[in-house]
Amino acid sequence: MKSPLRYIFSYFCFLLLASCVFAKDAPGIVMYWPNQDKPSLKVIFNTFREMGDYGGKRTLVSDVVVQNVSDKPIPHASFTVYMLDKEKVRIRNGVLVFDDLAPGESTKVQFQCATVGIPATLTLAAHRDAEGIPARTRLCRST
């Protein structure tokens, strides 16, 4: 006769495996550059993860997927990412850089910064050295 603990253990393992397979990540922040009507880029910031906390500053990391949705290659692009809290106060900014993105191609980069609060909204501003990217600032939707 088989032990009931063996069945319980097997059932627990099945539930754990099923939760890993069917679990979905929280939706990310989707931004279109320079605007949603005629975008050149689609930028998706995945959920920010806290990597540490020291002296009131939190180190946050997000995996970012950048997709060239235009019909032109983008040799280099550099953006400042402004992080705003729920009162629209800037709590930190960081730099997002990628290179050599062909039309329709995507790349994954990591964005990391130390912040003094919880970001609620992100804003992108292109640097002047970004080739093929208009230097305008667009506000994304809130997290």
Element layout with pairings:
Blueprint: H1 4-22, E1 29-33, E2 41-45, E3 49-54, E4 57-68, E5 74-84, E6 90-101, E7 106-115, E8 121-126, E9 137-139
Antiparallel strand pairs: 1-2, 2-4, 3-4, 4-7, 5-6, 5-8, 8-9
Any overview of this molecule?
This protein is mainly beta. The protein has one domain (25-139): Immunoglobulin-like (Sandwich). It has one helix at residues 4-22; strands at 29-33, 41-45, 49-54, 57-68, 74-84, 90-101, 106-115, 121-126, 137-139. Strands 1, 2, 3, 4 and 7 form a 5-stranded antiparallel beta sheet that branches. A 4-stranded antiparallel beta sheet has the order 6-5-8-9, with no helix packed on it. Strand 1 and strand 2 form a beta hairpin. The longest helix is centred in the N-terminal third of the chain and has 19 residues, at 4-22. It is elongated. It starts with a helix and ends with a strand.
